[in-house]
């Protein structure tokens, strides 16, 4: 695709064996758009990202992804024995999208890594062993790793998991800055709903084979979420921000 949406799903379905996670899903994601992918465990959120990464095939329908893709995985602390410096971890994000050797290639890689480290404010600890860094510092490096190849689409799979509220806000702000400054589309899977609501353009909610797509304030209502979850869910406004109470 050379124009229009950078991600396009058309009448898409995904299932494993006799189980269908979702079907008849049509979604176009424009450059610079922030899509939150929400729902309970087992609804197919991470599986959707795997489809976009080319790691899983649709059961039906079509998928198109234009431009490079960056991926931020779930936050998990790295062991102290991992023999990598911070810049080495970031460099893996560049190597995954480019091939070839030679002086020019090494120079381009170095520039890309330094640029990504600077974008997330991780230059100061780039030479430290990753296993000695805090969870927040490690997650900065994971964001930099996803940015090293200058992606047009950023896929985020529970990047706030196990982070304290301060580091959750930091991770979201780094991703939002990338979206705003480079017009990068963001698809963000999370159970931590409240930190990302202020930045979302649209929400895709997946629950038990059902889904709802729409602007945040249309989907994130007590009526809609209660119907999707088939259980009482309250959505309230606190100081101008939506807060979800109940559900998962």
From TrEMBL:
It comes from the Bacteria. InterPro entries: AAA+_ATPase, ABC_transporter-like_ATP-bd, ABC_transporter-like_CS, Metal_Ion_Import_ABC, P-loop_NTPase. Residues 7-233 form the ABC transporter domain. Pfam families: ABC_tran. The keyword 4Fe-4S does not apply. Keywords: ATP-binding, Nucleotide-binding, Transport. GO terms for molecular function: ATP binding. PROSITE patterns: ABC_TRANSPORTER_1, ABC_TRANSPORTER_2. Belongs to the ABC transporter superfamily. This is Metal ABC transporter ATP-binding protein. It comes from Tsukamurella soli.
């Amino acid at each position: 695709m050379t124009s229009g949406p950078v991600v396009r799903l058309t009448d898409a379905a995904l299932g494993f064996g006799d189980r269908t996670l979702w079907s008849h899903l049509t979604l176009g994601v424009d450059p610079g758009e922030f899509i939150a992918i929400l729902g309970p465990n087992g609804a197919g959120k991470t599986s959707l990202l795997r489809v976009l990464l080319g790691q899983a095939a649709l059961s039906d329908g079509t998928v198109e992804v234009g431009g490079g893709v960056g991926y931020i995985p779930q936050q998990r602390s790295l062991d102290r024995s991992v023999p990598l410096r911070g810049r080495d971890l970031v460099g893996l994000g560049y190597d995954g999208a480019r091939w070839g050797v030679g002086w020019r290639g090494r120079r381009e890689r170095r520039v890309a890594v330094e640029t990504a480290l600077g974008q997330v404010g991780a230059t100061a600890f780039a030479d430290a062993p990753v296993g000695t860094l805090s969870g927040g510092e490690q997650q900065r490096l994971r964001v930099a790793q996803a940015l090293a190849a200058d992606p047009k689409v950023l896929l985020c799979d529970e990047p706030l998991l196990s982070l304290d509220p301060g580091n959750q806000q930091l991770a979201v702000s780094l991703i939002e800055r990338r979206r705003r400054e480079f017009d990068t589309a963001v698809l963000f899977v999370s159970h931590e709903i409240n930190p990302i609501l202020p930045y979302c353009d649209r929400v895709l909610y997946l629950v038990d084979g059902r889904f709802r797509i729409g602007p945040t304030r249309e989907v994130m209502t007590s009526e809609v979420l209660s119907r999707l979850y088939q259980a009482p869910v309250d959505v309230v406004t606190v100081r101008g921000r939506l807060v979800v109470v109940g559900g998962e």
